[in-house]
Every structure is written in C-alpha cells, then in structure tokens.
C-alpha cells in the first residue's frame, strides 16, 4: 500500500493544477477584458495627473565663501517670511505663481531642499587630506540649485530666482559685516586720535612754556650762554637741566619741532577719520532702513559715497585718499556681487517631464489588474460550486 502513495499524491496534484487552469480558461474573457479595460482606464486617468518638470543650475560664488559667512547667510535664506517676501517682489512671477511660492515654501526645510552647497573639500576629501580638518580650512564654492514645477518655464524661473535670492542674502551679510565693523573701527580710531592730539598739544604747550622760561633765564643770566657745554651730567630724569641754558633751549626747540610734526600728522589723520566716520554713520543708517535686502543696501552705499564727496574738495590729499580707498572697496564689492556671483550652468529649461512616469503607471496597473481579475475568477468559480449549499443552509 505504501508503495502507491507517491503516485496517488502526484495524481492529486495533477488534478488540482488542471482544475486551476480549467477555471482560468473558463474565465479567460473576464480576465483578459477586465485587465485591458482597467489598464486603459488607468492610462487615461494618468493623463489627468499634472506633469512635473525639473530645472537645474549651478550658481558660482566667485572665489569661494567662508563657512561662517555661508552659515550666517543660510540662516537668512532659510527664513520662510524673508523668502516669500522676496518672491512677492519678483517681477517675473505672475500672481498665481506668487501664491504657489507662498504655499510651497512655508518652512525652512522646504527652502533648503532645493539649495545644496558645494564645498571645496567634501568629507571624503577631508579624511584623505588630514591637514584640512577644520571648518575655516574649507569653503563653499557654489550652490546646486534645483526645482520641480508645473511647467518648464516656471521651474527655470524658480532656479533663477534661487540664484538671485541667495546672492541678495550674501550681499546683505557681507555689507552688514563691512558696515558694522568699520563704523565701530572709525569711531574708535577717532577717539584714539583725539586722545593722542590732546596729549601732544599739552606736551607741546608745556615745552613752549619751558622754552620761554629758559629764554628768561638767559636774559637774566647772560653769562650762562658762555658756559662750556662739554661737561658730565646725569643721564637720569632731570639730568638735562644741568646743561647750559643754550643747550637746553636747543633741545627744547627740537622737541617742539617733533611735537608739531606729530600734531600735524594727527590732525591729518583726524580729517581722514572724520570723513570715514561720516560715511559709515550714513551707511549704518541705510543699513537700518534696508529691511535685510542686499541690493537696495548696496545701491544706498553707492549713493552715500557719491553724495558725501560731491561737496568736498578732492584736491586735498586727505579727502582724496579716503575717497580712493572707499572707491576701491566698492569696486571689489561690485565685482564680487555682479561678476563672481553668477550661474556657470543652467538654469535648464527641461524638454521632458520627470513625473508622472506613465509607462510605469500603465505597467503596474496591468499587473495589478491581471492579479485582481485572476483572483476574481477563482472567487466566482468557488461561488458557483458552493452557492447552492450556502443558500440551503
């Protein structure tokens, strides 16, 4: 008996498989037509899914931006309120597009998703180059900017907007640091200059009084002018008073001459410092009124520079020196902001959408529909065989 069991089980398996194929064959129209109809329906519905286009661009930051400045700027351009406010002033956006921006960028993460810094040294580079282990040894070379939009043109405009927006943030942070540091330095230098002038003028006054006193001594003791100057005197403080009055008078006059030159240099430096204080005080007022906008602040600084020196005599070398130094600094800013900060690739205008992938949707729908109707075929076959028994219970 046991020797026949494997053949009986094999026969049972063959019967079961033939029964399954028989069910599939009887329900072939349902399976084939149902799968085709469902697949065609899904393919049609996929046409209603909005297309998504992706634009890309690389925005260069000139000779690289230090990590501290980038982090400060990043905290600004990740601010949703500032981002949306800047977008609302963007003339290339329509009103519906501005509403789309306001809706999509309500968190810092939503902004950071599309703006990725490119570092001079990646983590892998830093591991290979052991000498570069600190942040200040690294820098940000540029930004990879991407965006996915409902049209190729809108996606490209958004990438362009990202570049302009980041540039404005970097401009503001750079100019903020420049003005804040220099306005403090200018006032500090002015105070030090005033203290030095006070000290030198007082010393000059004392030396002049001493010179008058020595001259009176010479008039009172005319024979003292004939005293031999080659004599041993103490080199300690006050030892010079044992020299002849004439020798002392010569020394005092030399000291007065030195003090006068020192005062003249300090007064010249004071004139330059006063001009710098005036410029940076005006720039500080413009900074407070700029509303954290880089481009308007830069234009305001240029206007201040022009107006400040319009009524001044630039033939004076002190004013001309300050004018030239400030002009060079502004030229450097202008070259950085308008030449170094730029797109070196993109923004691309995509020719094809990236979402949805209709071929994938149709393929997935085909297999799911086929599986569903196969299961439905077995369910209907089971119901037909057991319907009467179930109803009679």
Describe the model.
With 393 residues, this protein is α+β, with helices and mostly antiparallel strands. 69% of the residues lie in helices and 9% in strands. It is built from 12 helices and 4 strands; from the N terminus they run ααβααααβαβααααβα. Strands 2-3-1-4 form a 4-stranded antiparallel sheet. Helix 2 packs across helix 12 (358-392) and helix 9 (245-289) crosses helix 10 (294-310). It is rod-shaped and about 155 Å long. The model has no long low-confidence stretch (mean pLDDT 83).
Layout of SSEs?
Blueprint: H1 5-26, H2 28-46, E1 53-66, H3 67-77, H4 80-88, H5 95-104, H6 108-112, E2 115-119, H7 123-128, E3 139-149, H8 152-220, H9 245-289, H10 294-310, H11 317-340, E4 341-345, H12 358-392
Antiparallel strand pairs: 1-3, 1-4, 2-3
N-to-C series of helices and strands: HHEHHHHEHEHHHHEH
User: How far is the N terminus from the C terminus?
Assistant: 39 Å
The overall strand count is 4
Lateral strand order in the biggest sheet: 2-3-1-4
The helicity comes to 55-70%
Helix-strand category: alpha+beta
Poorly predicted regions: none
Q: From the alpha-carbon coordinates, what is the Rg to the nearest angstrom?
A: 43 Å
Give a short account of the largest sheet.
4 strands, antiparallel
Oligomer classification: single chain
Judging from the principal axes of the Cα atoms, what is the shape? rod-shaped
Counting DSSP H or I runs of 4 or more residues, the number of helices is 12
Kindly report the average pLDDT value: 83
- Approximately what portion of the residues adopt beta-strand conformation? 5-15%
């Amino acid at each position: 008996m046991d020797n026949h069991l494997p053949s009986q089980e094999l026969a049972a398996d063959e019967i079961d498989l033939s029964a399954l194929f028989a069910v599939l064959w009887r329900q072939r129209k349902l399976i084939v037509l149902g799968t085709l109809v469902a697949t065609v329906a899904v393919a049609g519905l996929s046409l209603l899914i909005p297309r998504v286009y992706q634009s890309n661009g690389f925005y260069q930051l000139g000779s690289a931006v230090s990590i501290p400045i980038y982090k400060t700027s990043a905290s600004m351009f990740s601010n949703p309120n500032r981002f949306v406010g800047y977008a609302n002033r963007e003339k290339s956006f329509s009103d519906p597009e501005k509403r789309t921006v306001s809706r999509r960028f309500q968190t810092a993460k939503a902004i950071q998703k599309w703006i990725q810094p490119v570092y001079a040294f990646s983590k892998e580079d830093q591991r290979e180059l052991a000498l570069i282990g600190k942040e200040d040894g690294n820098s940000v070379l540029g930004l990879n900017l991407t965006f996915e939009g409902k049209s190729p043109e809108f996606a490209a405009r958004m990438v362009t907007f990202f570049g302009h927006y980041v540039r404005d943030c970097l401009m503001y942070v750079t100019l903020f640091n420049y003005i804040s540091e220099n306005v403090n330095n200018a006032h500090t230098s002015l105070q030090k200059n005033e203290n030095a002038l006070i000290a030198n003028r007082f010393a000059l006054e004392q030396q002049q009084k001493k010179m008058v006193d020595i001259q009176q001594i010479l008039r009172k003791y005319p024979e003292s002018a004939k005293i031999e100057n080659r004599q041993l005197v103490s080199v300690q403080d006050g030892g010079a008073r044992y020299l002849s009055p004439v020798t002392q008078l010569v020394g005092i006059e030399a000291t007065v001459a030195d003090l006068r030159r020192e005062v003249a240099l300090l007064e010249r430096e004071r004139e330059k410092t006063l001009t710098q204080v005036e410029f940076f005080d005006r720039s500080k007022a413009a900074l407070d009124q700029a509303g954290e906008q880089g481009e308007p602040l830069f234009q305001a600084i240029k206007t201040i520079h022009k107006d400040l020196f319009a009524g001044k005599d630039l033939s004076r070398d002190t004013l001309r020196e300050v004018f030239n130094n400030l002009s060079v600094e502004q030229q450097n800013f202008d070259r950085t902001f308008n030449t170094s900060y730029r797109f070196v690739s993109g923004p691309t205008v995509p020719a094809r959408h990236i979402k949805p992938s209709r071929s994938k949707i149709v393929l997935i729908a085909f297999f799911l529909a086929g599986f569903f109707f196969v299961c439905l075929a077995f369910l209907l076959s089971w119901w037909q065989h057991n319907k009467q028994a179930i109803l009679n219970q």
